[in-house]
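Tokens in:
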């Protein structure tokens, strides 16, 4: 199935409207299926499969069931033992319906394997960045007995999804060598009927002494002033609004407002596993995506009440910035704005600290880096590629076009090595406070200096076989020496920054580019494109890119 042409997108009639009852997930059925349905390890769609950030699926489709969680957790225990990771494991969960039962299953296995597990007191939900922060805080100045973590989350995916990801001792998402080993071992355990799984009843696990409490919320909130200038925000008395979108940071925002005495309105503290309070995303599904104007209609409609407003996704590792002047800021625009601001207002950062971006992020970042005199580090999709650089300070910033980013503390040391939705949100308030202009106005100044980009992204369903063919795209499938009337300057299958395969193809000209790749978490493929000329030029790029992808899907070189 072809993606929609850029000028005729297939937008659901429900998009941007309140979720009607008929599309709400049946939570009882979903949780029942988690325990009652057994995946078939001989069926590719029912195996453990780590995408760009963990294993994701739905219990209703036998792609995220108790068997998966038991097998993955046992594989992680074996990986820890194999690599001498003997410190505590920090376990975080988000507000998806499958996260509670999955975390219980994981605790049963972790405790039975003698792993010391740190969980939030009182069943508190835990954002992804709070887990990364906890790992790094514990491991600081340690060389042995290191901590790691698990976050039970499918990120912003629909309510019927579950997810499970592993963060090793560097605090960031595990790289492909780690996830490949865990994935293979977990599938081996699945094929063996879970006989290799060590497990104890949950009640016994909670009494065993292996499971302990850690106040993720207090530790994270009290440290925020080290990464964002909270004094400047408070002193400016700007009025802010935040919508947690029913996610894991729902109780973090009131704590932030109280601790730093901010004029911050937490618009909703509702947690409902159906996410019935969301407006529907572009394709008619409920998706807690803070970068989607359809999913963010509630906050967009309230923007005039605030100087700056923001939201985060379900595990709070993504951000969405809503300005009074322009509404929801496009993720790529805000990445460029953050970079321009941070490298101008962080005097204690190393002059050698580089900027990290993915191959599908805007070329505006390249232009901003050039003006700043900063090195650009371009990597494949996946925040794992930034973890080492953020940890050692060689990267000041790492960001993805899907509204995920993190950056260093104000003193130039590591903050988190996983995506952090809260600090980019709070940084938008710092920008507004210190510059007297909101991020949209700051971005307009960047466009005046660097040119205006026109961008679009297409996506369509793709079978595993089609996704496999897309992964193997190479320069031979770009027969034309021009793209949209311009000479092709580069055809990339490996990222310029680290030489790693990009899992697809990127074609670059003087005033535009496109990249095509299969999704690592959904059965779809995506084409990203950008032009620094005009919309017509962008459409030409997209149509030519689509032709290349269509040929690949048909298996033609």
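Residues out:
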């Amino acid at each position: 199935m072809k993606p929609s042409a850029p000028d005729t997108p297939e937008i659901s009639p429900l998009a941007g409207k309140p979720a009607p009852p008929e599309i709400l997930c049946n939570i009882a059925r979903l949780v029942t299926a988690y325990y009652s349905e057994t995946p078939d390890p001989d069926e590719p769609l029912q195996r453990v499969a780590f995408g760009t950030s963990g294993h994701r699926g739905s219990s209703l489709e036998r792609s995220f069931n108790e068997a998966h969680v038991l097998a993955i957790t046992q594989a992680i225990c074996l990986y820890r033992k194999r690599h001498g990771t003997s410190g505590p494991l920090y376990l975080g969960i988000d507000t998806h319906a499958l996260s509670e039962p999955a975390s219980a299953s994981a605790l049963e296995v972790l405790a039975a394997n003698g792993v010391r597990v740190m969980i939030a007191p009182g069943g508190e939900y835990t954002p992804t960045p709070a887990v990364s922060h906890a790992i790094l805080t514990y491991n600081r100045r340690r060389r042995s007995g290191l901590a790691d973590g698990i976050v039970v989350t499918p990120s912003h995916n629909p309510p019927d999804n579950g997810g499970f990801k592993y963060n090793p001792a560097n605090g960031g998402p595990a790289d492909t060598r780690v996830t490949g080993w865990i994935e293979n071992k977990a599938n081996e355990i699945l094929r063996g009927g879970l006989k290799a799984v060590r497990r104890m009843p949950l009640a016994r696990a909670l009494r065993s002494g292996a499971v302990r409490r850690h106040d993720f919320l207090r530790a994270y909130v009290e440290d925020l002033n080290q990464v964002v200038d909270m004094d400047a925000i408070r002193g400016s008395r700007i009025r802010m609004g935040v919508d947690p979108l029913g996610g894991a940071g729902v109780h973090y925002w009131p704590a932030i407002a109280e601790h730093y005495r901010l004029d911050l309105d937490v618009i909703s503290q509702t947690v409902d596993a159906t996410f019935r309070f969301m407006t529907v995303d572009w394709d008619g599904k409920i998706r807690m995506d803070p970068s989607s104007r359809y999913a963010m209609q509630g906050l967009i409609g309230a923007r005039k009440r605030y100087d700056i407003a923001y939201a985060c996704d379900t595990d709070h590792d993504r951000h969405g910035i809503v300005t009074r002047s322009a509404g929801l800021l496009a993720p790529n625009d805000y990445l460029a704005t953050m970079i321009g601001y941070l490298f101008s207002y962080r005097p204690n950062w190393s002059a050698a600290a580089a900027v990290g971006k993915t191959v599908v992020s805007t070329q505006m970042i390249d232009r901003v880096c050039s003006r700043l005199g900063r090195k650009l580090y371009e990597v494949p999709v996946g925040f794992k590629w930034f973890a080492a650089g953020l940890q050692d300070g060689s990267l000041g910033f790492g960001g993805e076009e899907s509204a995920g980013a993190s950056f260093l503390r104000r003193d130039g040391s590591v903050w988190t090595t996983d995506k952090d939705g809260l600090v980019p949100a709070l940084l938008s308030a710092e920008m507004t406070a210190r510059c007297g202009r909101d991020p949209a106005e700051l971005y307009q100044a960047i466009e005046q200096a660097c040119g205006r980009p026109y961008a679009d992204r297409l996506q369509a369903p793709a079978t595993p076989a089609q996704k496999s063919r897309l992964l193997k795209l190479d320069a031979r499938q770009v027969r034309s020496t021009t793209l949209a009337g311009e000479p092709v300057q580069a055809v990339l299958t490996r990222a310029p920054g680290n030489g790693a395969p990009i899992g697809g193809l990127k074609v670059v000209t003087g005033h535009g580019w496109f990249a095509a790749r299969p999704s690592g978490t959904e059965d779809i493929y995506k084409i990203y494109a950008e032009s620094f000329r005009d919309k017509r030029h962008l459409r030409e790029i997209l149509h030519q890119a689509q032709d290349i992808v269509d040929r690949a899907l048909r298996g033609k070189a």
